[in-house]
User: Which sequence fits this backbone?
């Protein structure tokens, strides 16, 4: 019975990783199989600090240094590759050099939220509420009797989305080969723990990066979700560390840690779906080579 439970847990673990890497971020113009192959090729290169998976002129170690995307060549979506911006001395994460993100400080963010304690229809409620938000670039926001209209807000929101997407995308480091190695390790047929160690490092780094993102930005419409992501990345990283410390499945194995991981992974997927709905409501068209494109249009 325990063996069946372990097998189910491992399948859930691997399935959650595949879902994170492929299904959530599949776009309308690419089949899931093609998307899987594409993501697998990119992810396989993330382990080499000297590799340049997105071909933007910056190696992975440089992407870490500048806080840019390792999988998308244009982290701010301004049409200029990250490597070109670094060479020119401009900020590869800023669509404009001094974006006026502060115009959203007093924006009513309740329209982007949903009740955490609501029943299963809470996401549907969020979806319906967001359909009433203007998505044609002419939304107005009043702050201190001043009305902000037009592209400045779109640019600020684009930058907010691209930055949080960069953190999320960079944390997805599991390739198809890694999944097989992880399965073999958990079943005791391999001693290779490198993929598991990479996952732990990626989640811990994502938690740190998300905290920096939250502390340094005025993206209030995403603040609730960045807070949730910080906690989830910490919890997932901690669960994975306990799984690593416990070793392969043997007699006396503590299966509870799998349950803890499963709860956190499921919550991560739920939050990602909510962010996807919010981003879709903005009506911003993201180019394939900018981080925000990981979110799938649904309107």
Assistant:
């Amino acid at each position: 019975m325990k063996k069946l439970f372990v097998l189910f847990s491992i399948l859930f673990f691997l399935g959650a990783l595949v879902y994170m890497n492929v299904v959530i971020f599949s776009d309308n113009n690419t089949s899931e199989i093609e998307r899987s192959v594409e993501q697998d090729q990119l992810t396989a290169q993330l382990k080499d600090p000297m590799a340049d998976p997105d071909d933007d002129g910056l190696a992975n170690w440089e992407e870490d240094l500048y806080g840019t995307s390792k999988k998308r060549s244009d982290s701010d979506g301004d049409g200029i590759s990250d490597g070109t911006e670094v060479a020119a001395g401009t900020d590869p994460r800023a669509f404009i050099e001094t974006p006026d993100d502060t115009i959203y400080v007093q924006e009513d963010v309740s329209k982007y939220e949903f009740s955490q304690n609501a029943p299963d229809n809470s996401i549907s409620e969020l979806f319906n509420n967001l359909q009433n938000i203007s998505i044609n670039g002419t939304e107005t926001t009043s702050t201190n009797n001043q009305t902000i209209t037009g592209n400045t807000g779109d640019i600020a929101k684009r930058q907010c989305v691209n930055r949080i997407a960069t953190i999320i995308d960079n944390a997805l480091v599991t390739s198809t080969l890694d999944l097989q190695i992880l399965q073999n390790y958990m079943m005791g047929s391999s001693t290779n723990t490198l993929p598991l160690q990479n996952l732990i490092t990626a989640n811990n780094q994502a938690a740190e990066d998300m905290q920096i993102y939250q502390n340094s930005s005025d993206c209030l419409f995403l603040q609730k979700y960045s807070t949730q992501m910080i906690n989830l990345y910490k919890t997932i990283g901690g669960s994975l560390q306990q799984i690593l410390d416990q070793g392969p499945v043997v007699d006396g194995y503590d299966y509870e840690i799998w349950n803890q991981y499963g709860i956190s992974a499921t919550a991560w997927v739920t939050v990602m779906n909510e962010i996807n709905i919010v981003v879709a409501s903005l009506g911003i068209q993201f180019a394939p080579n900018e981080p925000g494109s990981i979110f799938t249009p649904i309107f």
Summary: The CA atoms of residues 145 and 272 lie 35 Å apart.
